[in-house]
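Q: What structure does this chain adopt?
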Amino acid sequence: MMGAVHEGQVVRIGTRGSALARWQSEWVADRLRAAHPGLVVELVEIRTRGDRDRNSPLAQIAGGTGLFTKEIQRALLERSVEIAVHSLKDLPTQGPDALTLGAVPEREAPGDALIAPRHRTLDALPAGASVGTGSLRRKAMLRHARPDLVVVDIRGNVETRLARATTGELDAVVLAESGLHRLGLDGHITDRLGPPRFLPAVGQGALGIECRRDDDATIALLSPLDHPPTRRAVLAERACLAALEGGCMVPLAAWGRDLGHEGEDEDRLALDVSVFDPDGRERLDCSRTGPRSDPSSLGLLVAEALRSSGADRLLHLARQAPPPRATDG
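A:
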């Protein structure tokens, strides 16, 4: 660590105001306090554009890029806060050069979860059952697996979306397993939708702790929170997404993992990526491994393989698809 923490030193964390965002930021704050006794960590709530517009489909709001991150990044650049805590799946792969990922803590379960109180599993849902999600990736995967379902666009925080299923308004909803677990709501999960049939969003289940690139003191404070196997896995995923110019609003799914961390191969990193057309009729898959020392090259390798198989055409269809009507809260 560069320099000792003096008693009463203050570090401010920029966070969204949702229950999940505050949980994640409090989790980071607790670990900073434990790693650096005497450090005072404060949370600064920042409303993002995605928080202010709760009705429009995500892809319809300014193209859906950086909806939950830009205002917090601006606070970092303006030195209103020293740290920003993001759900890594929300963080665009191209950000301000002055900012860096100071730490990527160990990843939670990366997969999706189905909440279907009556029918329980995805395969048990009857034809015509209504399933809610606000994610283009989840919509495409659901339509690919079950084209007979009615996929409904929904918005809102975790609790609001969960209630659409628990009250019976919809037959099911799909949410990130990690978010439900962090909020103590995983008892509502009736079916886990995970690899290899269902791949997560890039960075899903992981936190991205951002700070200013020139802030050596804060980078040092964050060092104990970094989990290198998770960082390697998500860097491979993000490199592939960036190479395909996908952004976070296309039906692309990725699952990276450090095989050495899993006890399979000490020097290898694995990456599986799927790309869909918006309606889920077509799916392209690619799986590769590479040296764990170079996650970005693995991501580029997978991107090139997908591109040669026609991924650009599917992603172009996704970008050209009209956004869904903003009828769901």
